[in-house]
Amino acid sequence: MLDIHRLLPPLLAILATLISVPLVAGYWGGVHPAFDSMAHFRLHLALLLALVSLPLVFFKGWRQIGAAGAVLGLAAISATLAPGMRAGPASAEAAAAPAAHYRLLQMNLRYDNATPKAVFSVIGETRPDVVTLNEVSRMWVEQLKFLEATYPYRIICPPPARIGGVAILSRRPFLHPSAASCYDRGSMAVAAVNFGGSAVNVAALHLGWPWPFEQHRQTGRVIPAIKQLGDTAILAGDLNATPWSMTARRLAAAGELTMLSGIGPTWLLPVFPQSIRRIAGLPIDNIFTKGRIVPLSVKRLGETGSDHLPVLFEFGVLPRKHDDVDGVLQAGSSDGAPA
């Protein structure tokens, strides 16, 4: 008969070692995008490593290995979650925020969403000033016409493929409509929006899947446009990348942007219920800010028929100082036009 007591410790040790390899490799995302792909699952791997290693602490002769694995897993979890545990958007900065508050709603619509009315319902309930959209397929281009009266200022990038492009819908006027542009075959849109007299560059971005797919190359293609964002800007979108990934850090560094913390998981395979998605999903829908934007709150909303949860961002815009000049993205090389 098999001696489980003897076989279990080495099996657990082997499993812990196998889990630790991609966990550690994920910290080397700057060396090769393959390692960055592993980083997206850092929390899942770290939790699994801790759970597999802890039982080894109770087996004589395996305690050091068990303790090392458990400490590595728990340390990775703590270090990864720590940035999101600091004071949220409604921090000390919020005390200096102007009375006027605005809302931005970020949504990955899902190109084949069978329930457009659920999307319109969320938009109607939250009444955002600006909506940034991903996976705007040809079906969605037609559906969004129903919102023209409420959101007359818009740019819809031509769908480059079946899953569609991106779009920005706004209640508030574009300062320079002719400068609203699409980039990288419709995966990024930028428009200068007038928030109470302040120019804010709003960008919608949808990156592809990580290595071995095109995310790394695509990030390089959109970075020039991100570098051109004005002094006050918001970048929102489905990055298909976690906040701690090299992809997210490259975007933040290129635009001198700060990523919002505390959004949490937003995506998981559609076979899983929303409750699981909110706990075990990947936090790949993210928002960045810069300049005079004062974050006030950020939260995930309910189901809309997509495999992503919407993200609602409330913010203020500090008044411009007399010696400041609002930087607004100038019309440059683009591949689309406002719809």
The count of domains is: 2
Strand order of the largest sheet: 3-4-2-1-12-11
What is the helical fraction, as a range of percent? Answer: 25-40%
How many helices does DSSP assign? 9
Helix and strand string, N-terminal first?
Answer: HHHHEHEHEEEEEHEHEHEEE
The count of β-strands is: 12
Question: Which architecture name of the largest domain does CATH use?
Answer: 4-Layer Sandwich
- The CATH C-level name of the largest domain is Alpha Beta
The proportion of residues in beta strands is 15-25%
Written description of the protein model:
It is a single chain. This protein is of the alpha+beta class and 339 residues long. It is 33% helix and 22% strand. It has nine helices and twelve strands. It has helices spanning 4-25, 33-39, 42-53, 63-85, 116-126, 138-143, 215-227, 246-255, 274-280, and strands at 102-108, 130-136, 153-156, 165-170, 181-183, 188-195, 198-206, 233-238, 258-259, 285-290, 293-300, 311-317. Strands 3-4-2-1-12-11 form a six-stranded mixed beta sheet. A six-stranded mixed beta sheet has the order 5-6-7-8-10-9, covered by helices on one side. The N and C termini lie far apart (72 Å).
